Amino acid sequence: MNRATVVAEALDLLDEVGLDTVSTRRLAKRLGVEQPSLYYHFKTKKDLLTAMAEAAMAPHADEALPSSGDDWRTWFLQNSRSFRHTLLMRRDGARLHAGSTPTGDLDRIRRKMAFLVASGVPERDAQTAMLATGRFTVGCVLEEQADLGAPAAEDLPDDVPVLPHEEAFEAGLALILGGLDRRTEAAASSSRA
User: Fold this and answer.
1) How high is the pLDDT of residue 88?
2) CB-based burial label for 88 (10 Å; 0-12, 13-18, 19+)
């Protein structure tokens, strides 16, 4: 048993029982070991959850980084969609990710930020947009993953607006991108003046 095996089994357990039911006791039983042996790899359950969150984000972290010839708007949309898709790949993926710190991904985040700034996006706006979009995406996925027992759209009053989750995500993402695009254009115009 190694660290990677423990994390992989923990993620499989997450998919089977959900975040509220994942425990080191259950994980140890699944692995056929005594619970204290897990502490050799992870000092606390929080450490285990952090490692699980990082591993769960691997599909997004493995996406190609933007290159200088890419259109920043297209990349921004694709990056956000990839993040959403990755969160949806795991049961309670958004809850697992929420509050985690992407320490293993800091270099990639810096490179993404550098790409946006090199593309003309003001640095502060790029930082704010990436943070806001990340939180928006996590919130959208939290709602989507919690929606399993919600009433169907046809069971709601006619004056309650209902958008399918992906459509609502895309609409909000377009608003964020539109605002960022306008601020970027305004900054470019003022620097030319």
Assistant:
1) 96
2) middle
Q: What are the structural domain ranges in the chain?
A: 3-56, 58-192
Retrieve residue 80's tokens. Answer: 């956000």
pTM of the model: 0.90
| 3-state secondary structure string across 131-154 | HHHHHHHHHHHHHHHHHHHCCCHH
Alpha carbon of 70 to those of 63, 73, 81, 82, 124: distances in Å? Answer: 14, 9, 16, 16, 21
* Residues 122, 187: Cα–Cα separation, whole Å: 7
- Specify the fold of 3-56: Arc Repressor Mutant, subunit A (1.10.10)
* Residues of the chain above pLDDT 90, percent: 80
- Measured CA to CA, the distance from residue 185 to residue 66 in angstroms comes to 20
CATH for 58-192 is 1.10.357.10
